[in-house]
Amino acid sequence: MSEPTERVRTGDVPMIDLRAWATGTPDQRGAIATAVDDACRSTGFFQVVGHGVPQQLIDDALQVADEFFGLPFSAKQQTAPVADHVNRGFLAVGSEALSYSVGVDAPADVREAFVLGPDGPPPAGHEADPYHVFAPNLWPAQPTGLRPALAAYFAAVAELATTLLDIYAVALQLAPGYFRAFNDHPTQTLRINYYECLVDGAELAPGQQRLGAHTDYGITTVLHADRVPGLERLDDAGRWVPVLPGPGAFVINLGDLLAQWTNDRWRSTIHRVVPSPAAGRRRSLAFFLDGDYDAVVSCLPSCHDTGNPPHYSDVTAGAHLAEKLRGARTHTPAAAVDTVGDRIGALRDTERRADDR
Ligand code: OGA
Ligand code: NI
After folding, report:
1. Ligand 1: does its nearest atom lie under 6 Å from the Cβ of 191?
2. Does residue 87 contact residue 117 with C-beta atoms inside 8 Å?
3. 147 to each of 56, 217, 226, 289, how far by Cα in Å?
4. Is the CB–ligand 1 distance for residue 79 below 6 Å?
5. Ligand 1 in contact with 231 (CB < 6 A)?
6. Which ligand 1 atom minimizes the distance to the CA of 230?
7. pTM of the entire structure?
8. Averaged pLDDT, groups of 10, the chain, 357 residues long
């Protein structure tokens, strides 16, 4: 009877084994797609094992992250982005307040981060790059092992994310390569979130978080996180539910663009990372696959009819992502709040209840 305990510990995020996806029978692939559809409809979160990303790549990425974040502030700050619209390099504590990306005022987030994209020039024909999604990476001089370790990890999780796109297409009964067509020259971002142990008595403003409540902006997120409490998702009743990855598992969640494509059949769930001083340091590697900047996201024909018209206007992925980033970086509410619709109301109710206590 160990199963209920495990379910509580992992915060009820279903575990899906992807091993059979590449080589399995049609029935086995169908079972994976059905499990993904169930999870995406109910919570927008699941976990995967059998994902094919070698543990060594994860360990190496965490090792160089420890070395980088252990450097003096002035060394890290050398790779700070030159402008708010450049999603690269070192983000000091307080640089972002993610709740602004969903239009909610909040204190600045208490976490450091290092952000990178694909390591190379923009793909041919996309040199103009209006949204800076192919901005050069900002590599620090030290540690020298950072670049190869993160580039290798990036490539492996990017491949996993592409596999997820194929599973999503099957789960939504679309042509197998449906989402690949929107990810020909995609926005791909790896953000290392580094949450240091908060020293006892550290002063936090009311409502200040390690990562403020937000939805992920794009298509899908592939998250490796230390098995340390902190990540929480908002459920339909307005309660925060812990999400703790199982051993060796990636946590997968969906971003706004999939909610828009599917007319909210699939969920872009609000989540946050809360301080947990007793638990100490927490690290996460968040990879975001967010579509082509010029992809137009339009409600799927199978997800609307006369009784259920599209909830969202068509949006260009690049414009949507840029507005979200602008909100979080400049600590001013993003205009794109309609993309999370009613869930903002649930979040505000939760916070009001907490304030009344
Ligand atoms: C994110 C995020 C969760 C975590 O980076 O968008 O939600 O556990 N991270 O760090
Ligand atoms: Ni997130």
Report:
1. yes
2. yes
3. 15, 25, 21, 20
4. no
5. yes
6. 8
7. 0.94
8. 40 90 95 98 96 98 97 96 94 94 91 96 95 97 97 98 98 96 98 80 82 96 95 92 95 97 95 81 96 97 95 95 96 74 62 66
